[in-house]
Amino acid sequence: MGNCDIGLVGLGTMGAALALNIAEKGFNIAVWNRTGAKTEAFMEGAGALAARITPAQELADLVAALKPPRAIILMVPAGDPVDQQIAALRPLLGTDDLIIDAGNANFRDTNRRMADPGAFLGIGVSGGEAGARHGPSIMGGGDRAHWDRVAPILTAIAADYHGMPCAAWLGPEGAGHFVKAVHNGIEYADMQMIAEIYGLMRDGLGRSANQIGDVFTRWNSGALQSYLVEISGQVAAAHDAATNGPLLDVIVDAAGQKGTGRWTAIEAQHLGAPIPAIEAAITARNISARREERQAAEALFGPAPKPIDAGILQDSVMEKALIAGKVLCYSQGFGMLAAAARSFGWTMPLPEVARVWRAGCIIRSAMLDDMADALTEDAGRTLMMAPVFADHLRAGHAALRTLVATAATHGIAVPALASALAYFDAMRTARGTANMIQGQRDFFGLHGFARLDDGSTGQHGPWADAES
Ligand code: 6PG
Questions:
Q1: Less crowded by CB within 10 Å, the N or C end of the chain?
Q2: Half-sphere exposure of 262 (CA within 13 A, CB side)
Q3: 122 and 232: one domain?
Q4: Span from the CA of 260 to the centroid of ligand 1 (angstroms)
Q5: Which CATH number belongs to the domain containing residue 96 in this structure?
């Protein structure tokens, strides 16, 4: 019988970093990789931590190295590779032995895998390579008893927020991977809104990358303090030796995506949960990838950007607009989590979600601490209506309006910020316009409508008279 506390399969960038983190926290870990050469290279680079790491040649060696009941983390690409790895491991394991998928999985796959015989957990891990190595944010999902078994290891390796580990059980079944997908949807929107403001400064205000970097760096010491604003400042400031100019100016303007954002948009539609800023960000990535088409359209219609008067779009306006956009985007993300919990019958502690996002993950920001507090006070509330965020919106929606209107009149696309504003305006409109939609539906399909005056439902208009 082995003496290792946990096993890990898949020594890619994230897997290797996670294994070193686990060893560094004092646990004995056994590792296995499909190609043995990678395991050897990993062990050579492990330094003193190698003493707590057992490299396995075969999967059976990995299993033999573990203390029962065993726990094995999978860090392999999402989809078929996970199923293949589970199929290879299960015959070597007892029913008590736990497989933990720590990659970015579609939560529907996680639900399916959890329904199969054998203990299984799906956890979302955020923070990139540095996070995995020194403290990621860990979003646990699945059977609570399974989580509790490995919680001592997962909380020990997680990011620390003022003495609190950013790792928690967030719900049954695939809830952990669901929360991670929503995290990534928010990540896309956060990044897109920053990129839109970068575009206004570059194309509208004619600023250099370095000047733009300075603005982001300054904002990072205020309400916008966050990892993504911080690294945006650094990205904009980076120098390119080959061109002796800003690196940002030579990076191709076509964004990649591995699909987690897309999962969020698809699930939001299934749930009927409005997340327009997140959807706009995903669509913006799709548009960015159509570079040749955009170049052809610019040749056809002429370039859009015109100079913007710096007096109209002051830095303070853009900062307030970005704060408002961020509040609206997070409110949409948490609203989607609440809708999922209701629809799937999941117990999902929303304050805990905000708490595990405060450090370690890509969307970590000062604002998440306020979100955790606001949800602790009332987990059922719509975040944008919590006093602290309502204050941000009261202070910022005029700025967001100025920014979106200015961008529109100068032909500069700001889809995520514009969607956030439209969401705000739609949400604050008590008497909307869907009475017209209901009238139209009843006209062509006799779908029926409810009446405002007497509260009756299933009513019909005099359409037959109108058509005859
Ligand atoms: C994280 C990130 C990570 C994500 C990559 C790439 O939380 O650490 O969300 O999980 O996979 O950032 O994502 P895209 O390729 O979709 O941009």
A1: C
A2: 8
A3: no
A4: 8
A5: 3.40.50.720
Q: Within a domain: residue 148?
A: yes
Task: Kindly state the helix (H) or strand (E) to which residue 245 belongs, with its residue range.
Answer: strand 245-246
Ligand 1 pocket member 192 (CB < 6 A): no
Q: What is the crossing angle of helices 367-377 and 387-409, to 10°? A: 130
Task: Please tell me whether residues 341 and 445 are part of one structural domain.
Answer: no
CA atoms within 13 A on the CB side of 333: 30
Catalytic status, residue 187: yes
Question: Quick one: 282 and 248 in the same domain?
Answer: yes
In a domain, 262, yes or no: yes
Domain count, the chain: 3
Among residues 144, 169, 194, the one where a domain terminates is 169
Distance CA 295, CA 289 (A): 11
Measuring from atom 1 of ligand 1, which residue has the nearest CA? 126
159 & 251 share domain: no
Report CA(361)–ligand 1 centroid distance (Å).
10
The residue-averaged pLDDT of 55-64 equals 97
pLDDT digits (tens, 9 = 90+) for 109-152: 999 999 999 999 999 999 999 999 999 999 999 999 999 999 99
Name the domain boundary from 169, 203, 235.
169
* Helices 387-409, 315-344: inter-axial angle, 10-degree rounding: 120
Q: What is the pLDDT of residues 223-278, one digit of tens each?
A: 999 999 999 999 999 999 999 999 999 999 999 999 899 999 999 999 999 999 99
- Are 388 and 441 in the same domain? no
Q: Measured between alpha carbons, how far is residue 390 from residues 208, 379, 385, 387 in Å?
A: 34, 16, 5, 5
Residue 126 Cβ < 6 Å to ligand 1: yes
Range of the domain at 105: 6-169
pTM of this prediction? 0.97
